[in-house]
User: Fold these one by one.
Assistant:
Number 1:
Amino acid sequence: MVNKVEKELRKLEDELHNSRKNEILLGDLLKYSSQPFGVGYPDGSLGIVNKAFEELTGYTQEELKSSDWSDTLTPPEFHDMEHEKLEKLQRIGQPVKYEKEYIRKDGIRVPIELLVHLVRNEDGSPKFYYSFITDITERKEREMLSDALNKLNSYINSILDYDEIMQLIVEEGAKAIGAESSVINLIERDNWVVKFVYNFPNNIIGQKKTDQESPTSVYVANEKKAVAFNDAPNDSRVNKNGMKLHGVASVLVAPIILKDEFKGIIAFYHHQKSVVFSEAQIDFATKLASSLSQAVENAQLFDEIKNSEEKYHSLYSSMNEGVALHELIYNNHQEPVDYIIIDINPAYERIIGLKRNEVVGMKASEIYGTGTPPYMELYAPVAEKGKSKEFETYFEPMAKHFHISVISPGKGKFATIFEDITERKTSEENLQKTLKRFYIILSNMKASVLLVTEDSRVEFVNQAFCDYFGLKESPIELVNINQSKMIEKIKYSYQNPEEEIKRIKEIIDDWKLVLAEEVLMWDGKSALRDFIPLFVEGERYGRLWLHFDITKRKKMEEELIRSQDNLRELVDKLEVSNRELEQFAYVASHDLQEPLRMVASFTQLLEKRYKGKLDEDADEYIGFIVEGAHRMKDLIDDLLVFSRFNTQANEFELFDMDTALNSVLSYLQPYMNENHAQITYDPLPSIMGDSSQIQQVLQNLLTNAIKFHGDEPPKIHISAEESGDEWTFGVSDNGIGIDSEHQEQIFEVFKRLHTREEYEGTGIGLSICKKIVERHGGRIWVESKPGKGSTFYFTIPLAL
Ligand code: ADP
């Protein structure tokens, strides 16, 4: 149509050239043209416009003439461009074509295309312009929609996340169409499920609908192309309730079809007011839905791949085995000489102790410190021929054992999957070593050892066994012979072969455990034997026969018993002689007392009567006799006490050490006073013992402590301390002390360190203490420094 009009116009132009008065004709002609048309003057004023122009802009010619029409109609951003075009037209004279927009009276912008011609005056100056205007709204829309479609298609091909693609499509699709909202519903198990939503007024994601509840979707699916429901609320093909519920005025629905199969629909909504979807929009929706189906397939496919890749990857990275991917390096002769590490998993880092960034891209010959690529001769054939391999190896540089599997994912490439089996290997090795040790021990044992398996085969026998049973074969020769054959060989070594055979059969048949059974051998020797059933992992394995020669031990036992008897005898004898000795001492001292008393009495008498009447010598001699008699009396008294030690012993009883001490102190009081002695003591316990004997101990120790005082008056302390299962009593003084070399012998009978002139005494006191303490199950000793004082300790077991 434009062409036809243009032809007309060209004619008209000619005429216009010819006659300036033909403007009326022109106006009439253009008045009926359906193409908007207008005339403008160089000064900017508007000439005529036709009806179609008025319809396009919404303004009447009068309205436009009364204003700056150009500014009213043309948005400012087009001014410069338009000015340029018109200048070009003036310069060159050829009609110009360009696109811009008009702002209609109702404010809506209309995209237009202008074809502008220039009519000049005779002097060449511009006379007026006339323009043919085309409403290119639809074209623009198609362009825009096609751009949008291209963009979306490129998204579909570039963005690989399914959800992301779908969301983008539903959003961008709605924007391109100018719809307020949009949804994608997909068929899942025969239901229409709302999967993706853009700007929908209600939250409908995840909603499921049956075919009956989605008549629109079913309708569109059957139509196999997009359908516009412009007046949705009144359209019988539409689910009215749904439209009402979501306030839908118009909807455009396109089916998503993949290989003739319905996957779902995409729908675009207007809620505010109903619109008429353009053909371009319907077309767009159809095309978009078709791209979408591809996207759905791609995405689903990709998701599958991704999932399996993820699975593979997570397996790869969570594997306990180290994995490394390698590629062979070849020399000029196409021989593999090295390999590069392409990838490794975390377990590799753990096991090998090298970080990813230290190994990836590196040559094997460089990173393992071997100078040459390890196991090249094993790996290369796998990478070349593709046949997998596995092996165990000890890798010297790391001092580790590995189990390595090698597979090839493609020519020149190989993956190693390896496990550190050092622990297992070393425990195997240790087990081997232990077994060897056991073998050596068993082989060299003095006891004779025979191991027979469950199937009656001799598995092990040691030299001692061969020797003991007088077998001429070496242990090695006997291995694997039958049990019954072995029994035949050894039976005559027993004293009663037939009986033993019966017994052994019984033991074997009953799978019996027999320990330390004594048996007599043919040569009169004795043996202890064990039959030990062995189980390995709960299964019967065999039987261990052990024979121990106990002849020597028996002899030793007999000897021991004999010597014990001897000892008993000796002790008995000793006791007798001890008793006799005591008896003797008692009798001696007791019977000596009588004549001694006589000697003493008469000497005193002699002294009284004849002192001063005889000569001086006689007086002195008498003195000696008196003195000697005194001394003898003391000795005899002490000897009596000593000899009565056993005969006068009392039964043990529980008594208060306090009370015992007090009675000793009151007895010693005069002696203490005489020597200005001070005695202190700890709280004392009750003990189990012979109270009068313990008093004797205290008395002797205290007497000594007072007697052997130094320059200072005696200060004595009695302590008691519980330690372990006994009481330790201490009697400490500040006396003259005892040098260490005499500290033991003072406890012997009659041992004294001083003469009678220096300190009185008989040397029997401490030996009595020792006897008493030992009778109570305790010990006595002294700790002392000469000049510093002494502490006599004795222990008495706790009273339980
Ligand atoms: P005696 O006191 O009758 O000499 P003991 O057997 O009681 O006989 O003592 C033996 C010797 O041990 C004493 O002669 C004395 O040399 C020495 N002795 C005993 N107790 C003490 C003491 N508390 N301080 C220094 N020496 C002592």
Number 2:
Amino acid sequence: MKYIECYRDPELVHGLLKSVSFLAERLAGNVTIMEICGTHTHAMGRWGLRRLVPRNVRLISGPGCPVCVTSAADLDTALYLAGLPGVIFTTFGDMLRVPGTGGRCLQDLRAEGADVRVVASPLDAVQIARDNPGREVIFLGIGFETTAPAVAAAIITAKKKDVRNLSVFSIHKTIPQAIKALLDDPSLSIDGFLCPGHVSVITGVAAYDVIPQVRRAAVITGFEPVDIVEGILMLLKQILSGRFEVAVQYERTVKREGNLKARMLMNEVFVPCDAEWRGLGMIGGSGLRIKDVYRDYDALERFSVPPLESVEPPGCSCGEVLKGIVTPKECKLFGKFCTPANPVGPCMVSSEGTCAAFYRYGMNRE
Ligand code: SF4
């Protein structure tokens, strides 16, 4: 705790904010900075940082919550698999209440009798499969580079231990391709990115090279207030100087080369594939499919899923929220018809969702 406290020091934060204001006065106009990661969004809300930065530094939230960016089609496929007779469907807890087409969620299926179990780790799913040899166990593989190595390790473990009744529905996604899609989108104009600290621990720094290549600023940032404000300061320095790079503010955790061992695990089991992101659409090479050598562990190989007609929740603006085009408060349903207790879209369900952050912390700027 003592170690963390120095990154929450109010005097340090205010000193950094003064420097941010000093640089902001020297900007030619407004700048837009996107925080990619939902953990950053919630930290900004928790510490009230959006209200403290100068008004010409516009902070917007991006697609960095894996639950939020899961497409309606993938959600419906997960619901279909979970409802198959005899299946034990295992998932992280934050997927339980995410509504698919028609508003049904895994929690509803469980209430109707489906065997849906929350696990803390993919290895728990392996153990459940070993404990239930007569039943099919499916694990919902969701998350970015932070989660995919653990899921890969679970699949490797299952194969080594000859656990044959486990399969994984992989809807993993990778962040750098999403950033490239944001940069390529002509409707967006983002001057700098606060890159996600946790993902960067795995990917390393070079994964974001596409950002400075198109003359945009990038800083890999930690999650405490000092980290975030220093990250914004470092972005403004790049923008003002015109010297763009992928800078690392979160040096206490992120190594430039990332975590090679974790990436080796991912590469052993997964291969990049196209993936559909809520709000961003289909992005080439942004998903992780299970390699053929592990195809016995691929739920989509093991079970036949019929064509499903998926539709987004009516009136929900999650797609626009995930690109920073609108803020949650600009969604007509926010706070009236969509709340954490009765969520309409995934951005209100997830503990990392932008709408949930705005609701919880009453963020009224941006
Ligand atoms: Fe979707 Fe609810 Fe957010 Fe509106 S407030 S965008 S309905 S999650």
